[in-house]
């Protein structure tokens, strides 16, 4: 039924011989400071930026910014004294419903839109960055690309399971176009630049 | 009911119409600001349009490639010729998994297939989890916009709905309070769902993966918590290569809301361990649209909603006046392809100003297609007497230069001297909603001649 009929109908009705265009990246050359651009965009989309001072640790920042967080999952392995709930691929995602804070290592950031790419390799349970109340992404300052074209080059060789570009906290404007931060996903997003 | 009659209904509440008009124009302005901030924006649009044209010319092969790669990754692929087959496939997957509670994220395709009533009739609970869609679901309505489903509702109306359905306190329509109450309610639904249904923004032939974009995170909350994930997609959602996403993800959110990208752009390639993932590929009239040379470019649409936000008719008539799943300019070229008689008034719900085509990120020639549908419709569909006679007269007048000049002078004379009741009579639909311009004495022709002499 469906499959053969659909493919047959497409074959009979499709136009022919339209080549796949190539993008010319020269059109997007811009003289910008990638880090500054990223920081600006990440805040425009509602995120917070923390640039680590040389005397500070990630843990200092977390303690200061989330003094009340109790249930913490640290996938970045950057915490030393704060205890982290350990999770694995076997963890039932529903057990993460009361997580206050998740810390995940970002692979790279995108300057044009403040998005950070994270892939399943860095967090064993897919729902974690969404179900956690607050989300912290740790990102190395050097790992920022200019635009999405570069972004897709960077992930072209990955093992494809699940991955996501995250730009800011979850949000909605569905009630009279008033922007409300904290819809169904994380209530806040903070990027710690190291 | 024709578009104009439904639009008249919407226009009864003038304050609301004015708000609707302004709110959408504001979104359009945000889109402009965002687009102008990207150097090479027009190149992006050109390439996007070119990729989509290539997709249509190789659609069968891309779909086969997509299916093979998805299956290799452990995803189950299904094909549905029409809405009925789609709904039956979804029912069967749910029955096989003994799923009784379903959470759904935004998918215009499942709206188009009327999936919710189909599942509800089988005793399955379906909850729409995009806040806007949740609002219209409890109001027992349909989305009036593809990106902003509840744009036709005031915050006071939402407040009342939530009091009734969620037991909230009267808040005068406080958006933060209401959103947070919905969050709590939906959380519970996510945690108890047996299956999640999502739409698909892009399906990549080269990898067999799909990308779903949301701002709320609802598609991810649903699909990662439930044991079964069903993603429904129209055949036209295919793109050839993963790197093409670079083009489309740069265009989509900027065109839709002015954001540089949606909060979440989730790339699903393999089901999580111990879970099932299904993709349903749906035709439902799309191959027929593909056969219509003049209209096939409508299948390029990436559902950003920009053509709605910019359309002067849409903004002042509301999405429901189109009486179709996809309203606005793009809906007005898609719907006649599905049911020409039912939707014959839609291609006339346009000023042909071309603003839709100007903002469309994939460069669909929307206003030209509207014009082409008009030609088809005037030939094929019985027209109301008034419209027909006006078109006939107009055709005659436009064809005859002397008559054109005379009638122009006559119209200006009438505007100046005729009593109000004639100018604003029923025969002149344009006089209904606005006052016609004051006549300054000269028309362009006369003005130009005078200027040239100087
Ligand atoms: S037709 Fe173009 S502008 Fe309208 S929704 Fe589709 S992609 Fe967006």
Per CATH, the architecture of chain A is 3-Layer(aba) Sandwich
* Sheet having the most strands of chain A: 5 strands, parallel
Q: Tell me the Rg of chain B in angstroms.
A: 24 Å
Strand order of the largest sheet of chain A: 1-11-6-3-2
Whole-number total of structural domains of chain A: 1
Bound molecules: iron/sulfur cluster
What class, by secondary structure content of chain A?
alpha/beta
What would you say about this model in short?
The complex is a heterodimer of chains A (194) and B (454). Chain A is an alpha/beta fold.
Blueprint of the fold:
The complex is a heterodimer of chains A (194) and B (454).
Chain A: H1 2-13, H2 34-44, E1 48-51, H3 58-65, E2 72-74, E3 101-105, E4 108-110, E5 115-119, H4 128-131, E6 134-139, E7 144-145, H5 148-154, E8 162-166, E9 171-172, E10 180-181, E11 188-193
Parallel strand pairs in A: 1-11, 2-3, 3-6, 4-7, 6-11
Antiparallel strand pairs in A: 4-5, 5-8, 9-10
Chain B: H1 3-10, H2 14-36, H3 41-57, H4 59-72, E1 76-80, H5 83-96, E2 101-104, H6 108-112, H7 115-120, E3 125-128, H8 131-138, H9 155-166, H10 175-192, E4 195-198, E5 202-204, E6 209-214, H11 218-225, E7 228-234, E8 238-239, H12 244-256, E9 264-268, E10 276-282, H13 286-291, H14 306-310, H15 312-317, H16 328-338, H17 355-359, H18 366-380, H19 385-399, H20 401-417, H21 420-423, H22 429-433, H23 444-453
Parallel strand pairs in B: 1-10, 2-3, 2-4, 4-7, 5-8, 7-10
Antiparallel strand pairs in B: 5-6, 6-9
Bound molecules: iron/sulfur cluster.
Residues 255, 301-307, 330, 359-362, 364, 366 of chain B line the site of iron/sulfur cluster.
């Amino acid at each position: 039924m469906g499959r053969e009929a659909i493919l047959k109908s497409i074959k009979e009705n499709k136009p022919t011989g339209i080549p796949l265009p190539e993008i010319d990246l020269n059109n997007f050359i811009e003289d910008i400071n990638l880090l500054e651009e990223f920081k600006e965009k990440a805040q425009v989309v509602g995120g917070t930026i923390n640039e680590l001072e040389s005397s500070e640790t990630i843990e200092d920042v977390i303690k200061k910014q989330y003094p009340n967080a109790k249930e913490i999952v640290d996938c970045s392995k950057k915490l030393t004294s704060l205890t982290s709930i350990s999770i694995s691929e076997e963890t039932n995602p529903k057990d993460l419903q009361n997580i206050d804070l998740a810390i995940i290592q970002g692979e790279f950031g995108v300057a044009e839109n403040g998005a950070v790419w994270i892939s399943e390799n860095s967090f064993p349970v897919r729902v974690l960055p969404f179900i956690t109340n607050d989300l912290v992404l740790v990102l190395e300052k050097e790992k920022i690309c200019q635009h999405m074209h570069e972004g897709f080059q960077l992930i072209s060789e990955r093992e494809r399971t699940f991955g996501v570009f995250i730009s800011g906290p979850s949000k909605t404007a569905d009630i009279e176009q008033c922007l409300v931060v904290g819809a169904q996903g994380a209530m806040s997003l903070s990027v710690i630049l190291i | 009911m024709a578009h104009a009659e439904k639009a008249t209904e919407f226009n009864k509440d003038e304050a609301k119409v004015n708000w609707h008009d302004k709110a959408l124009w504001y979104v359009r302005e945000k889109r402009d600001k965002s687009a102008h901030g990207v150097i090479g924006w027009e190149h992006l649009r050109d390439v996007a349009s070119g990729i989509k044209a290539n997709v249509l010319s190789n659609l069968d092969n891309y779909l086969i490639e997509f299916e093979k790669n998805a299956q290799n990754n452990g995803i189950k692929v299904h094909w549905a010729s029409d809405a009925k087959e789609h709904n039956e496939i979804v029912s069967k997957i749910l029955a096989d998994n003994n799923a009784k509670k379903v959470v759904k994220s935004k998918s215009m395709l499942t709206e188009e297939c009327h999936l919710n009533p189909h599942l509800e009739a089988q005793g399955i609970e379906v909850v729409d989890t995009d806040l806007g869609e949740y609002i219209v679901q409890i109001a027992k309505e349909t989305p009036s916009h593809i990106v902003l489903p509840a744009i036709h509702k005031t915050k006071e109306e939402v407040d009342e709905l939530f009091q009734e359905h969620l037991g909230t306190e009267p808040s005068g329509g406080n958006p933060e309070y209401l959103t947070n109450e919905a969050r709590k309610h939906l959380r519970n639904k996510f945690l108890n769902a047996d299956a999640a249904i999502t739409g698909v923004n892009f399906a990549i032939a080269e990898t067999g993966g799909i990308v779903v974009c949301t701002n709320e995170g609802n598609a991810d909350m649903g699909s990662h918590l439930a044991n079964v994930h069903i993603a429904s997609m129209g055949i036209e959602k295919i793109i050839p290569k993963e790197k093409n996403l670079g083009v489309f993800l740069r265009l989509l959110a900027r065109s839709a809301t002015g954001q540089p990208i949606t909060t979440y752009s989730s790339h699903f390639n393999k089901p999580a361990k111990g879970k099932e993932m299904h993709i349903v590929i749906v035709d439902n009239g799309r191959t027929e649209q593909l056969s219509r040379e003049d209209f096939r470019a409508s299948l390029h649409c990436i559902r950003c909603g920009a053509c709605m936000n910019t359309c002067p008719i849409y903004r002042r008539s509301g999405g429901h006046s189109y009486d179709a799943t996809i309203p606005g300019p793009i809906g007005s070229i898609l719907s006649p392809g599905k049911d020409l008689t039912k939707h014959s008034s839609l291609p006339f719900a346009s000023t042909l100003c071309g603003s839709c085509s100007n903002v469309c990120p994939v460069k669909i020639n929307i206003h030209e297609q509207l014009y082409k549908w008009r030609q088809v419709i005037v030939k094929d569909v019985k027209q109301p007497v008034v419209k027909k006679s006006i078109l006939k007269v107009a055709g005659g007048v436009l064809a005859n230069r002397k008559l054109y000049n005379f009638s122009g002078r006559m119209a200006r004379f009438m505007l100046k001297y005729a009593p109000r009741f004639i100018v604003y009579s029923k025969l002149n639909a344009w006089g209904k909603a606005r006052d016609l311009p004051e006549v300054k004495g000269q028309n362009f022709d006369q003005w130009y001649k005078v200027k040239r002499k100087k």
